[in-house]
Amino acid sequence: MSNANKRIVFLIDMQSFYASIEKGANPELRNKPIVVAGDPERRSGVVLAACPIAKSYGVVAAEALWQAQQKCRQLVVVRPRMEMYIRISMQITRIFEAFTDKVEPYSIDEQFLDVTGSVHLFGDPLQMAAQIRQRVWMETGINCRVGIGENKVLAKMACDNFAKKREEGVFWLKRETLADTLWKLPIEKLFGVGSRMKRHFHRMGVYQIGQLADMRPAILTRHWGVNGEVLWRTAHGIDDSPVALDSYDSQKGIGHHMTLPRDYHTAAEIKVVLLELCEEVCRRARKKELMGSVLSVGCRGADLAAGTGFGRQMKLTEQTNDAMTLYEAACFLFDRHWQETPVRSIGVNLGQLVPDNVVQLNLFTDNHKRRSLAQAMDDIRTRYGQDAILRAASVLEAGQAKERARKIGGHYK
Amino acid sequence: MTEPMVSDEQELIRQYILFGILFRAVMADLGQMRIVPLKFSYQMMFDELSRWAERQHHQLRRILRQRGCTVVSSRRQGHMYVVHYRQRGYVREAIYTIEVLRAECQELVHLWTRYEQRGENKQ
């Protein structure tokens, strides 16, 4: 491929996103080791983000708060403010849109930019990256790192493996130089290789990315099917996916998952949460004017130990976005597969979505009445808040709906 | 990891915006304080702080103008503070986080207090 046809893609990652926002908003925290963490009293004390000073004490994201506090006695714990983080993430998207119209948010603190068409307005890609870093720093107080590549996969690996470790916070990973850069790294540094895949590769005698790149794709396909070929292509820096603005527009399923504050032991307790999850899933489905016909229910056991719990799905008799219909089906699945072991996390997913403007008429149930009731409840919640109207079961000790109304994605608003 | 290099104009614009917000915010706070019955009057202190911020604001505007930079508009949009400025013929945009601006203004108040203690603001 000639240089003229090459794309220029940036992956921009915010350093310690939540912690940087908190430090920017409170100057007294600037020279202190801080972590943003959940509520320790509700056993949700997990470190969501640690600032560079806290990281220098060995504190890492996703560890238990008590462990972090043992590593660093002076650690300042800040409660998350998810609404503000989402708002600032959108503000950063707007800053990026001043540089290119092709911006794809990858997560709350990472965004892809395709700057092929606009890079000439800002100098070369390195100068453009420096200008973006300047603006984000000046306007939000957040230090960001830029990975540059000719596609999304190279940009992502450039950022994770090189830019984050460099003083200047920018790295351009070129396909022509992969043998001297990416291929020398251990296999787990390849995008898409987790701890289990790393073990598989080690058993095969593959320790470096270069060794994987030298293998024939057919061998990898035999082991992992299409994913094997994807890994081979990633090792060679091949990725044709566009930086798309509508990546998340087409939805395959609507799901909700909840980690409980303690282990739930009885079916009655667990079913309260199951009902709340069905309610939330159906509310979102109705908001998007969708119905689903495949229900999945998943549970994980005490202390989230691997290998405990179950995950099952079933086809519903007709498409629905009615909470009680979904709840009945969820109870059926739960009763059938639950082995009366303690449950610590539970999730419900509605799949095979179709528009909800076509309804199968039913002689025996008054669907119209159910839809009107659901619509009225949705309107009340939209106007007065999530916990403005609750099912009576949610007021029980096992209920989580009231607490969840104060949170976004399980973290405080 | 080092923080990104910042151009002089960008930093001057930010300072100009901060002092502009500060002198107005202090006057607004003074107006609020007048409603509340207090044992003493703090008006002189507030006036002094507001005047200091305003002087800095105008000084920065002069420096910016000398460098061919003028602020075209600045207004709050929801939780953002959007500034448009003209730099060497190009209109550029800066979008500040309200929380960060508030925190930086608070820092300027601390700075003023320190200057006051050392008597540097009298000059």
Question: How is this structure best described in words?
Answer:
The complex is a heterodimer of chains A (413) and B (123). Chain A is α+β, with helices and mostly antiparallel strands and 413 residues long. Among the domains of chain A are: 17-82, MutS, DNA mismatch repair protein, domain I; 180-235, 5' to 3' exonuclease, C-terminal subdomain (DNA polymerase, domain 1, Orthogonal Bundle), CATH 1.10.150; 253-412, 2-Layer Sandwich (Dna Ligase, domain 1), CATH 3.30.1490. Chain A is 37% helix and 21% strand. Chain A is built from 14 helices and 14 strands. Chain A has helices at residues 17-25, 52-56, 65-71, 82-96, 125-140, 152-161, 195-203, 209-214, 217-224, 226-235, 267-287, 323-337, 367-384, 401-404; strands at 9-14, 34-37, 47-50, 76-78, 103-107, 110-114, 144-149, 170-172, 253-264, 290-301, 310-320, 343-355, 407-408, 411-412. In chain A, the strands form four sheets. Chain A has a five-stranded mixed sheet with strand order 5-6-1-7-8. A four-stranded antiparallel sheet of chain A has the order 9-12-10-11, with helices on one face. In chain A, a hairpin with a 2-residue loop joins strand 5 and strand 6. In chain A, helix 4 (82-96) runs antiparallel to helix 5. Chain B has one domain. Chain B has helices spanning 8-35, 43-66, 98-118; strands spanning 69-77, 80-87, 90-97. Chain B contains three helices and three strands.
